[in-house]
Amino acid sequence: MTRVYLTTTIPYVNAAPHLGFALEAVQADVLARHHRARGHQVRLLTGTDDNSLKNVLAAEQAGLPVQDFVDSNAARFAALREPLALSYDDFIRTSRDPRHRPGVEALWRACAHDLYQDTYEGLYCVGCEHYLTPDELDGSGHCPEHRTPPQRITEQNWFFRLSRYAAPLREAITGGRLRIEPESRRNEVLAFIDAGLRDFSVSRSQARARGWGITVPDDPGQVIYVWWDALGNYLTALGYGSDGDAYRTWWEQADRRVHVIGKGVLRFHAVYWPAILLSAGLPLPTDILIHDYLTAGGQKISKSSGTPVDPVALAGRYGTDAVRCWLLREVPRVGDADFTVDRLVERADADLAGGAGNLVNRVVTMVHRYRAGLVPADAVPVPEAKELVEAVAEAPWTIAAGLDDFDFRRAAAAVWAVVEEANRFVEQTRPWELAKAERSGDPDAGVRLDGALAALLTACRAVGDLLAPFLPGASALVTAQCTPGPDGTLPPPAPLFPRLTDS
To answer: How many helices (DSSP H) and strands (DSSP E) are in the chain?
Structure first.
């Protein structure tokens, strides 16, 4: 049986979650649900990065003990499960989970042959938790991501020999052992490798880390770099470094090891992390799937930008289905997507209230009106249903191809292609006219009406099934509306999705 290990990044908990991370969580959830529906064994991991200096500084600003502060915000990330309908199997916290510290220490020791001490002087962005070169700064000398000036740091650290791994990294990527999607990001990684890899600092002084984080083994004056710490969660959540079976089952023996990440952390996941794994003699991820940013008013949605959009509040106001629908139908495979509430409402009303919901309501209403709610049995197919039958048959393949290509918009569009074809079929066959002709004594019209209603119900049930990985709540509503009760009749027709513009 195919075994798939899926992960999101683990976000800093310096503030509450925002819609940008919700995008990533929902994308990973769709992939997990899709693979489960195909009969694959799936493990979906998410969690929080508690050990960042950003968290410490935010706690100090809030006047709270660091552990209390990160506990509070980490709970808000864990609480995304219900409002976003997430189906993660595991949630790891790097400060609290007993699996994490021993695993990070074991990974450090496994790479000991590539670690050495040296003095480092450079420009450090606390927002990125990363050193920047002067060439990477914007025209104002600021980090282009966070628009803040970096700190000039000089201290003795531990370094990792990244320079040793340029050739094996390039070979893994170009040979297909490590797949990076989309291609533009793959090319970006290859260009970074070809420009020359430099060893990078993988520890910080205890003083600069404020004593927060995982101490370097056998060096109590140093704390392991937060990115080494955080990246290790993909292994530590599986018990790496212990005698458990989960690591072997879900990392060594998995058919696919898939990281879903944002473009801002591409270098860490597609260069540093594989190099660390190569150094430790461990299998690489098979897939790194990268999404772009969400913006609001053209500015990146983030905790530090002043444009955080609260996904929990959105789901509470407009519904989980509406939030997931916008994220999956509006965000392109390549390129940022600008969010507004108006766009969310327009998309939900078009796709749910006016699309799938309207179709199902029309069809179930006609079955009740013309057949007393009984699904026509042994109906003779009508010739006009050919395109609808083909659309239903093609949709699962289109969805699978889209998701394998990390194109959620293309995959989800296949569901609404069935809805559109079903609506076209309704207008083409005009069941109300067939019912009128049947009442006037035309038996052929009754046969055609049975065939049309049967085809439409089949399409509506297919829509319910096809929606499952994308909008599980909507899927359940559609399926329930199209499922006969013990007496063989469909439930009474009811509006499934309210129009948000009317609420």
So the answer is: 21, 16
Residues 6+ apart with CB under 8 A from 135: none
Cβ density class 333-349: b for 16+ within 10 Å, e for less: beebbebeeeebbebbb
- Whole-prediction pTM: 0.94
Q: Are 197 and 50 in contact (CB under 8 A)?
A: no
Q: Are 361 and 493 in contact (CB under 8 A)?
A: yes
- Cα-based distances in Å from 291 to 86, 182, 375: 18, 8, 43
Distance CA 97, CA 356 (A): 42
Determine how many CB atoms are found less than 10 A away from the CB of residue 138.
10
Would you say residue 26 lies in a domain? no
Peptide bond into 182 cis (omega under 30): yes
Could you give the number of structural domains in the chain?
1
Question: Going edge to edge, which strands form the sheet with 299-300?
Answer: 299-300, 294-296, 337-338
Q: pLDDT for 58-117, tens place per residue?
A: 999 999 999 999 999 999 999 999 999 999 999 999 999 999 999 999 999 999 999 999
CB atoms within 10 A of CB 291: 24
The C-alpha atoms of residue 7 and residue 289 are separated, in whole angstroms, by 10
Q: Which residues face 222 on adjacent strands? A: 205
Flag whether 228 is in a domain: no
Handedness of CA 425, 426, 431, 432 (dihedral sign): negative
462: CB partners within 8 A, 6+ apart: 392, 395, 418
Q: Which residue has the tokens 């990477």?
A: 136
Q: What is the pLDDT of residue 297?
A: 85
pLDDT score at 123: 73
The two structure tokens encoding residue 366: 């006609």
Q: Residues near 358 by Cβ (< 8 Å), separated by ≥ 6?
A: none
The answer as to whether 497 is a domain residue is yes
Q: Which of 92-96, 133-137, 403-407 has the lowest mean pLDDT?
A: 133-137
Q: Is residue 437 part of a domain?
A: yes
Tokens coding 362: 């029309």
How far is residue 407's CA from residue 278's CA, in Å, rounded to a whole number? 29
Task: Residue 488: give the domain boundaries.
Answer: 347-502
Sheet holding 200-201, edge to edge: 130-132, 115-125, 151-160, 200-201
How many Cβ atoms from other residues are within 10 Å of residue 313's Cβ? 13
